């Protein structure tokens, strides 16, 4: 099966987390991927980080998320070496900075730079990293659509967009072609459940959850209730936290790790079956 092959996702509570999420306009994305924000920055030895990504790919985490911003291109270069010779197995996501997204020619040149660093001729998904100073979303949509027609990207989307931004996007010509919105979502960052998730479900735009381990918002992995749920399933708290973000079958999750043991733990989120009791316990420990 190719990285975006197979049949559509969708999961009810008590069902195993799905392997894939259906995308608007057809096709699928792997439900579990790997981030790369802080890779290639000396946090771990680079060979270890590459091995972690390779291991994740072999365990079914076949989406890799990067961005021109990460390490000023160092992350994309590293990902390029990892995917060399196995491009067809990977659903590759990169992002354009808002400072490069106010003029079509800048978006084209940013995309060319990403493709060069990643040593590939196409991205599966290209995202606007955040809204920033981008006033004219129509310029971005037109540029993304041209890149798509030329085969340089397969799909496009956005990141860090709230409901107002999404409504503005959907109000412009072609804006409904958005394939995903990548946003902060974890047990400790549940704010989007009040507005953005219901809006996205209604409009059929999958969420891609970044920082699913709650980075920057507290010590989620030390939580005793999370540990208890993990014990019930014989997995680690990280696997439960990640599976929780994927529980509705319409959310892609992209944890990051440069540590082999952690990647193996994170991969265990695939197929994990959280019960009604697990979800209720987690709701009490991490209120929405
Ligand atoms: N669009 C955006 O604006 C945006 C913003 C933030 C992030 N992102 C994307 O989302 C990805 C993930 O987000 P993130 O890096 O902020 O947060 P995260 O994935 O929630 O957490 C990453 C941290 O958790 C650790 N970790 C991973 N697995 C673990 C495990 N099993 N047990 C214990 N610790 C574990 C990692 O350390 P080790 O390396 O030692 O395992 C790393 O320090 C990023 O890499 C990036 O691709 C996008």
Automatic annotation (TrEMBL):
Residues 1-27 are annotated as: Disordered. Transmembrane segments: none annotated. Residues 1-12 have a biased composition (Gly residues). Pfam families: Aldo_ket_red. Residues 32-284 form the NADP-dependent oxidoreductase domain. InterPro entries: AKR, NAD(P)_OxRdtase_dom_sf, NADP_OxRdtase_dom. Gene3D superfamilies: NADP-dependent oxidoreductase domain (3.20.20.100). CDD domains: AKR_YeaE. This is Aldo/keto reductase. It comes from Methyloligella solikamskensis.
């Amino acid at each position: 099966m190719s990285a975006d092959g197979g049949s559509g996702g969708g999961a009810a509570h008590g069902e195993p987390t799905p392997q894939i999420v259906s995308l608007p306009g057809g096709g699928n994305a792997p439900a579990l991927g790997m981030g790369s924000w802080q890779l290639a920055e000396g946090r771990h030895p680079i060979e270890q980080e590459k091995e972690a990504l390779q291991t994740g790919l072999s365990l079914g985490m076949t989406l890799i998320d990067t961005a021109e911003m990460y390490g000023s291109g160092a992350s994309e270069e590293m990902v390029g070496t990892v995917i060399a010779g196995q491009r067809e197995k990977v659903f590759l996501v990169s992002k354009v900075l808002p400072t490069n997204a106010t003029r079509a020619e800048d978006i084209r040149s940013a995309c060319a730079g990403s493709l060069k660093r990643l040593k590939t001729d196409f991205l599966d998904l290209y995202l606007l990293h955040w809204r920033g100073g981008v006033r004219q979303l129509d310029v971005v949509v037109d540029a993304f659509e041209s890149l798509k027609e030329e085969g340089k990207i397969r799909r496009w989307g956005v990141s860090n967009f709230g409901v107002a931004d999404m409504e503005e996007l959907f109000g412009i010509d072609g804006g409904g072609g958005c394939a995903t919105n990548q946003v902060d979502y974890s047990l400790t960052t549940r704010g989007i459940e009040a507005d953005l998730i219901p809006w996205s479900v209604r409009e059929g735009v999958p969420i891609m959850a970044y920082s699913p381990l709650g980075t920057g918002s507290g010590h989620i992995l030390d939580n005793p209730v999370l540990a208890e749920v993990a014990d019930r399933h014989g997995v680690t708290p990280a696997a439960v936290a990640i599976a929780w973000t994927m529980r509705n079958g319409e959310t892609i999750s992209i944890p990051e790790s440069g540590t082999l043991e952690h990647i193996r733990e994170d991969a265990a989120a695939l197929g994990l079956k959280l019960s009604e009791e697990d979800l209720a316990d987690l709701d009490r420990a991490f209120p929405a």
